[in-house]
Amino acid sequence: MANTDRPTALDAGPEANLDPDMQAYFAKCMDKLGFVPNVLRAYAFDNAKLRAFIAMADDLMLGDSGLSKLEREMIAVAVSSVNHCHYCLTAHGAAVRQRGKDPELGELIAQNYRAAELPPRQKAMLAFAVKLTETPDKVEEADREALRRAGFSDRDVWDIAAVAAFYNMSNRLAAAADIRPNREYHYLAREPMDVIPSRATRGAAVDDRRPAPARNPQPGGGAPARVDGRPAWGILPLS
Amino acid sequence: MANTDRPTALDAGPEANLDPDMQAYFAKCMDKLGFVPNVLRAYAFDNAKLRAFIAMADDLMLGDSGLSKLEREMIAVAVSSVNHCHYCLTAHGAAVRQRGKDPELGELIAQNYRAAELPPRQKAMLAFAVKLTETPDKVEEADREALRRAGFSDRDVWDIAAVAAFYNMSNRLAAAADIRPNREYHYLAREPMDVIPSRATRGAAVDDRRPAPARNPQPGGGAPARVDGRPAWGILPLS
Amino acid sequence: MANTDRPTALDAGPEANLDPDMQAYFAKCMDKLGFVPNVLRAYAFDNAKLRAFIAMADDLMLGDSGLSKLEREMIAVAVSSVNHCHYCLTAHGAAVRQRGKDPELGELIAQNYRAAELPPRQKAMLAFAVKLTETPDKVEEADREALRRAGFSDRDVWDIAAVAAFYNMSNRLAAAADIRPNREYHYLAREPMDVIPSRATRGAAVDDRRPAPARNPQPGGGAPARVDGRPAWGILPLS
Amino acid sequence: MANTDRPTALDAGPEANLDPDMQAYFAKCMDKLGFVPNVLRAYAFDNAKLRAFIAMADDLMLGDSGLSKLEREMIAVAVSSVNHCHYCLTAHGAAVRQRGKDPELGELIAQNYRAAELPPRQKAMLAFAVKLTETPDKVEEADREALRRAGFSDRDVWDIAAVAAFYNMSNRLAAAADIRPNREYHYLAREPMDVIPSRATRGAAVDDRRPAPARNPQPGGGAPARVDGRPAWGILPLS
Amino acid sequence: MANTDRPTALDAGPEANLDPDMQAYFAKCMDKLGFVPNVLRAYAFDNAKLRAFIAMADDLMLGDSGLSKLEREMIAVAVSSVNHCHYCLTAHGAAVRQRGKDPELGELIAQNYRAAELPPRQKAMLAFAVKLTETPDKVEEADREALRRAGFSDRDVWDIAAVAAFYNMSNRLAAAADIRPNREYHYLAREPMDVIPSRATRGAAVDDRRPAPARNPQPGGGAPARVDGRPAWGILPLS
Amino acid sequence: MANTDRPTALDAGPEANLDPDMQAYFAKCMDKLGFVPNVLRAYAFDNAKLRAFIAMADDLMLGDSGLSKLEREMIAVAVSSVNHCHYCLTAHGAAVRQRGKDPELGELIAQNYRAAELPPRQKAMLAFAVKLTETPDKVEEADREALRRAGFSDRDVWDIAAVAAFYNMSNRLAAAADIRPNREYHYLAREPMDVIPSRATRGAAVDDRRPAPARNPQPGGGAPARVDGRPAWGILPLS
After folding, report:
1. Please, are residues E130 and E43 in contact by the beta-carbon 8 Å criterion?
2. In C, what residues contact A, Cβ < 8 A?
3. Which chain E residues touch F144 with a CB distance below 8 Å?
4. Which of B208, B214, C36, E176 is deepest in the core (most CB within 10 A)?
5. Contact yes or no for B155/C12 (Cβ under 8 A)
6. Per-residue pLDDT tens digits for D85-132
7. Which residues of E touch D112 (CB under 8 A)?
8. How far is F222 from chain A (nearest CA, A)?
9. Do chains D and A touch (3 or more CB pairs under 8 A)?
């Protein structure tokens, strides 16, 4: 039982007396998600480390950017796919399913973004993120230029790079410590949508998608499924 | 619309006039699964090719073997994870979820089997399958010996190898032709279980697992969820 | 002595009572080749497995296709070169030597097809097969397009992919089971030809090649060498 | 001229009006190092991003840990060597030279830590960091166990992982943005030492090393060399 | 016609006026082999380069060593197999066939030495050579120790390393310049032997091998085949 | 103490009675460099091996060529960076620092030549050398053509290939024998220059560079620093 409660294979120390800001953050997680993500529990042995991780993650994933929040989650998942990171694929796969309102998109990026037939902008974005993951030493001006040609500003390129780089860190910490994802992630946002994104709109806006043909509606139709009494879609994904 | 109907990026020819045995097989798929797996539709331009593929796949995955059907599906998924095969991860990921009666196990193997803390037998099995996938030229007697020490007979080793080798073929055909998985696979066997497998029993028998704590029961409790009016669990997975 | 008789390192079971069609197939091998290929002997512990393997191999390598039989053998050898498969390089290297009537071509493809200065069509074909072997997850529409530009139909692309995929399977089964090639393959079609293919015609038609200069004719000139009293060239290669 | 002043290839935006804490940090850099590290200048377009990076870097590299500060710098350099990161090899190579009081040690780790014949503790530490860098998906319990056997606590393992993971992030951001190291790093701590560490003491404590034989003493003997009037050794390395 | 006469894809300059020692060397090649190896013709634009290459190659392959000449050729071929070097696989594959008096051994090493079931000494030797080829940065004391345990002296280890290193050079020069092997190599030492080496004696001494069963004797039995009137076996292989 | 005197981990034999030409060569090293490079000491157990190595190295690095001596050293370092060769990065890194009169250039190439923003000619040169190092089997006519387009003659291509190939040999011998660089190399040519090469002139001629701004002049200004009483710049680098 202790086993399932320990979020990692490392016993880095007991949970610290959380500082008030960190207590508030954990409370917000419980309120919005119904659980504290295990990566945060793993960091909770030390307030400074926990705070630094949250500050960086939230700035990257939720702060101002020319990239949509969905796009940033797509980068997280594409990078984690290369690194075969169980934790991040589970947690951020759920985030892509939620943010994209597209349960299949999360799977697609987690498996192989090249099969997703994404719009050129997102394809260029993920190609850069994956090259940066696989062969960082071979990234050159031509790679930055390809992003600019795809419509990204230099600041966008920074953000793509920063998110991809951050998950190269997180993936490795999760692997080294064997951080186990909260089981709830597995079940979030799995319901079929009313509206099936065509290949042309996948990963882009969620408007004007054509209705999904011939699939068994969940009771309650396209309404967000509920997990533990909270809506599964529209929940703020946290790190 | 034709786009979503075409199961691959290749137009290898119109569907052949299916021979009676192949017609019967497709009908069985419709009856049991509610759809014909797209890999079969992709092969349907030629009766001989379709028949040969089905014969080999069914013998490997459903025929007599010292490996359980779940174990064979686990091999399929672990190999497909290395090869990042969208089709096979989707279709056989569903099969692992179904056969293991464990929605999380499919994800685990699709992401990184090493995070699954499987029993030694299955860990050895997947380690062999993955080495055979990544560096077939480096497989040696010591690798066969490791399987024998883990309790496998020589015939079992053959079966592990044959299944791993088969998905190295299928993954590549799916990648080359961009075979797209039927969308239904995404939604099969996603429901939380009543009984959570402990790490010790994961991937093994489904009996005597302890009850799942504190998760929202589906209406109808642990009963198989239903997709299109058919039970999602216990359905015969087909290639 | 048992050692040299066992065609693999695995004792998967005694040879089955072969069904009549399989008996007939083995007899055809003895008649045409003078031996039963060891990969078939390795499979002979089970009629269903043996039949499925033969059905798929013969359809792929001998069935109707826009690819010549030589081209399909070239794919088999190029894939096996990447995977360093002793069995397939030996058996299908012999097939390329025979079918191409060019003892050096088999060596070239087995060593490195890039050194062969093949015609653009075959170069594109092998480049695709090798990419599919090395990085199946990175095959994209651009790769299919390159084959179409080289003159291949979508059906041809399927066939290239299917043959390359099949040998990625066979290579791995041979590696896992340590299937040993029949020693006869080593000696088949080794004789110098009368006519040396120029780089321009290599791997293509065997007509109008210029006479080979200054090489010691075998007794009997360019006539097919004979192995065990049967002609070594023109023999139907079997899987 | 602007060219040499721009610390990266990306124009992510003008330097922000730095918040007082960030202004103070930059002033501390000028005071202690004589320059602001270019990675900080690269981040200076945004206070939140800059602060988050500094918070994480300083906690990891200067905070409490069972790892010495030199050991943490060694990890930074070993990881950066795998990733061929110009920025981090330059900046943290200087830090290893300084902290180790061993100009050659920085080179050794930057080139190939395996040539350094480090004590078993540090060899295990770097082997883990490099495996985590190269194949994070293959890190398993056995790897953690190897560190425990080498004398590390679970908290130490966390720290090794966190530092290695952090430089896998930094390396990638530096590569993506082409962050150029301040030229001063190249010249820091290059002077031969009075005392040559034997292979046995390399990377460990700096006491009781035997005197360096037969090398030209700098004026002032073993005293720290001076760069721009500040001592080059003993300077606090910053990120 | 010029095409087949040019031994490489580079026109590095006309053949130099060969110095007397180099003229004598070429004459010796003609006398013993019937041709001048193309790698020497490729070098012949410059006497100094030609002489240096010959000096190093002959010292390594023919000079005093604890390794037999066959073993050194086996290293050359195993290294060239990793690097897929057409020139060296062809020329040194012939040398292994000749020196081992075993036409199949050359194929085995060229394809995958692991399939050859060599004696432990030679397996260790080739494992070291291949690791040094694939990941020179990861060779450590443990690798040298493995060779010592297999019975090699430190001088032998040097020789294994020097030969493996030399062919990593030659392979790359051949690849870069597209040096084409003399066609005669393809046909050397292809005849079946009277005596089949068992797996136990393969690659070792050629004595006391049991007679080859049931294979078509060449006219003249086990006598060396003749190429251009010279015996094909027992010929001094040259670089 | 013996430990630091032994230049390698292998005891390949005592130093031979050096032949007069080799004695003279060692004396020249002492005179010009102040030490005998350890790679030569490692070879000194055998006059023939030592002579062959020196002959090839000196011809390649100091003989007539369309490549400058600096360019050849840059190739040596770029190759050694891929192979993480401690010996060659140390010795030839020093040579690039000296020959380029640019202490930072040596670091740049040793770390990652792509960060150096070299002129197109040298970028093409190093890209070829690195590809030849990493994937020699994939070098094709297109790669030679790229060099010709960058202004290199076929003879230049040969020289680029020959130098890159040679260091693929040397790197591996150094790794296998653990050849340790003379410690003096670490300290050679580390002094800041008066004149900072702009990115445009880096690696090219050393004339007309603009004066270095704001850096602490060494006593004696831009004059060559002195190591052991000999000038550190302008010294003939030896192998």
Report:
1. no
2. 137-138, 140
3. 9-10, 176, 178
4. E176
5. yes
6. 999 999 999 999 999 999 999 999 999 999 988 999 999 999 999 999
7. 137
8. 34
9. yes
